[in-house]
UniProtKB/TrEMBL annotation:
One Gene Ontology MF term: phosphatase activity
Family matches, as CDD domains: HAD_BPGM-like (cd07505)
Name the record gives this protein: HAD family phosphatase
InterPro entries hit by this protein: HAD-like_sf (IPR036412), HAD-SF_hydro_IA (IPR006439), HAD_2 (IPR041492), HAD_sf (IPR023214), PGP-like_dom2 (IPR023198)
Species of provenance: candidate division TA06 bacterium
Pfam families membership: HAD_2 (PF13419)
Length: 222
């Protein structure tokens, strides 16, 4: 199998940002005098697109704001963090530099907004490595549907079977599998409850990007 592209998820995979979003939920609802219900995400799944989460909030809390207004407010609330204090996971930059040097195409498939994705990649000095960014605000079905990864592959002009996806959550792994791609998973504290079922279906599970880089190097030895 010839690997021509590596596609990354963003939040929880490339960057440590999941805690920020929990605070955003609390602050957003607090501004409207609404407590955070214990079952807030009972009907939600990891991997829902940015627009799907906005639709869910509007419906659940009967919000008067439009979907676009909800997404923009969330973006405004977290933008400072994405510019200043959200960082790449250890070893991520080294892996991106390695792939770039090998002329391997690099894509991003994220449930987040494209604006925030570009912001955090730029603040960490790695935006230049990405050939394509497909985001969850682009009105496509969220993970575990394969749409986002298939769209990245199409934009990269690479057959899905020649792509490796790096993910952290189960629904993201399923999305990549459903797209017919090879899937690597990186360990993340927020996905600990689903860790074992992730390990059962991925092609490789790594505790960090250093381990993943070592494994990827085997595909590109020539």
């Amino acid at each position: 199998m010839k690997i021509e592209a590596v596609i990354f998820d963003l939040d929880g995979t490339l960057i440590d940002s999941m805690g920020v979003w929990a605070e955003v939920d609390k602050e957003y609802l607090g501004k409207r005098g609404l407590p955070v219900p214990y079952d807030l995400f009972r009907d939600m799944k990891h991997g829902n697109s940015f627009i799907e989460v906005a639709k869910y909030f509007k419906r659940k809390f009967n919000l008067s704001d439009t979907i676009e207004e909800i997404m923009q407010e969330w973006t405004d609330m977290v933008k400072w963090h994405y510019e200043n204090d959200i960082y790449l996971k250890p070893g991520a930059k080294e892996l991106l530099e390695y792939l770039y040097a090998k002329n391997i195409k690099i894509g991003l498939g994220t449930s987040n907004s494209k604006q925030l994705a570009q912001t955090v990649l730029k603040s960490n000095n790695v935006l230049k490595y990405f050939d394509v960014i497909v985001a969850g605000c682009q009105n496509i079905r969220g993970k575990p549907f394969p749409d986002i990864y298939l769209k990245v592959a199409t934009a990269l002009n690479v057959n899905p079977c020649n792509c490796i996806v790096i993910e952290d959550v189960y629904v993201g792994v399923k999305a990549a599998k459903n797209a017919g791609m090879t899937v690597f998973s990186i360990e993340d504290e927020h996905t600990k409850p689903e860790r074992e079922k992730i390990k059962k279906i991925v092609n490789f599970y790594g505790k960090n990007f250093y381990v993943i880089k070592e494994r990827l190097e085997k595909y590109f030895e020539f």
